[in-house]
C-alpha cells in the first residue's frame, strides 16, 4: 500500500503554482510594454490625423454634390445635436445646402391624429420642448421655417415602441416631394443607441427605397452606429471612422463649442449624463455616413432573416 506524503505534495504544488505565477507576471510585464508602445503610437496617429484634417478641405469626403436641399429626419428633439451635430454644423455653414429638419415626436402624444405642417407645430405638445428645439436649431443655423414637428399618439417617445412604418414613410415621402429634397439623412438600423424610435426611421426609408417610391433626384443616407467602446473614445476613434465610411463630417474642438451650446439650449434634457455624453461621445466630434441603396437593403434584410 502506497503512503502519500501530504507535506511533500503540498510543497510541490506550492512550487508549481509559484512558477506559474512568476511566468505569467513576466509575460504580462513584457506584453504591457508592447501594448503601451502600441497605444502611444496609435495616439500619435490620432493626433497627427486631427491636426492634419484641421488644415485641409473636407469637401472631398462630404456628401456628393453637395445636395441643394437636405432633410434631416430625427425621432426626438435633441437628436439633431446629440447625434448629427457635426453634419448640421458644416451643412448650415455651407452656401450651397439648405437644411430641413423633420422631427417625428415631442415626447408627448396628446392627439390621435397624425398631422404635420412645415414650419409649425400641431396638436399641442410640450411647449417647452418645442421652444428648446427652435433655440437649438437657431444656434446650429437651421431656420425656424425649415423645421417640422409631428405630434401623434402613434409616435410615442418610448424606447420599447417601434413606430408604424407606413405612416412614418408617408410623412417622409411627402416632405421629399413637396420640397424637392436631394438628400435624406437619418439613423441606421441600429439607431446609434438601439432606441426603437430611431430604428423605425431607418425601416421607413428602407421601405421607401425597396418599394421604389423615392424620387430619382433624392439619395438616402444613414448615420453609422458603432459599438459602445468606439462610441465614447472620441478622438481615438478617428482613424477607424475615416476607414469605415465613405462620407464623414469632422469638427474641431473650437467648432464643437457651438454644438455643446446648441445642446445646452435643450435645458430640460441637459442633465449630468448628457453633459458627460457631450464630452466623450464621438457623435459630437465626427459623423460617418453610408448611402442606402435598394440592393444593399435587400441583401441586408435577407442576411437578417437567415
Automatic annotation (TrEMBL):
The chain crosses the membrane at residues 34-53. GO terms for biological process: GPI anchor biosynthetic process. GO terms for molecular function: N-acetylglucosaminylphosphatidylinositol deacetylase activity. It holds the Pfam family PIG-L. It is an enzyme of class 3 (hydrolase). InterPro entries: GlcNAc_PI_deacetylase-related, LmbE-like_dom_sf. Keywords: Membrane, Transmembrane, Transmembrane helix. GO terms for cellular component: endoplasmic reticulum; membrane. Its EC number is 3.5.1.89. Belongs to the PIGL family. This is N-acetylglucosaminylphosphatidylinositol deacetylase. The gene is LOC106740738.
